[in-house]
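Lab notebook: predicted structure, single chain.

Context: the supervisor wants predicted structures on file for every construct in the current expression panel, including those that have not yet been purified. This is the next one on the list. No modifications to the sequence; it matches the entry in the shared construct table.
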Amino acid sequence: MILVTGATGNVGACVVRRLVQAGERVRALARDPSVAGFPAGVEICAGDLSAPEGLEQAFKGVDRLFLFTPASGTRSVARVAREAGVRRVVLLSSAATQKADPRINPIAARHAAAEAAVREASLRWTFLRPDSFAANACAWAGSIRREGVVRAAYPDAQRNPIHEDDVAAVAVAALLDAAHEGHAYALTGPAVITQAGQVQAIADAIGKPLRFEALTREQALAARPPGTPVEVAERLLDYALKSVATAPAVTDAVERVTGRPARSFAQWARDHAAAFT
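Prediction complete. Output recorded below exactly as produced.
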């Protein structure tokens, strides 16, 4: 049995679908199972990783785990997994663990702590470290639908965005094959693209011209999504500014693990065109 946490998220939902297609027994953990539209045959379990003391039932009979890094409590989750007999964990971590100082970057700190917790629990692990998710562009969907505009800082910031289903493909390969144990994969899309280039790719996908209105750093901080801590927004803006001059690396990890190249941002935009119309 494979337990998928974060099963209603962008990556988790793709992991569930791919595992079902592979003929695996899947249990999906969700805070609110009533909102999930899982494939037939998936066992659905209500649970919250931030409250690991109530997860014993979710882990019953589980031997492999796809773990979406929770905001807190990874050490307790890892302990529950070990005690339940889980033998393999695929952790969705972040490239920030290698690119930022966890002492000052809360994103890096969260994921570095999760990796440490899994190691300390003596679980057999694979770490997935995606850099930039293509799906982050969904934050622009509202203004694109309403006004045909994207407002953000640093239009020339460079990204290496990865399709969430490519991350899921690597995750499933690691869940199904012990050869990936002990590996940490830096995951990116196949090419670098600027934020302005991403907006143009979305425009091409939906057949509608779009504008990019550049914000100052102060304006971008003020316009950050509700609930985003200012220190997180500041680190993201720092990263964007740095990438204007220095392009992020591109890896071939998706192709090495899955046997096919990662999909482009243009393909992601075509796959998700409905979100922007």
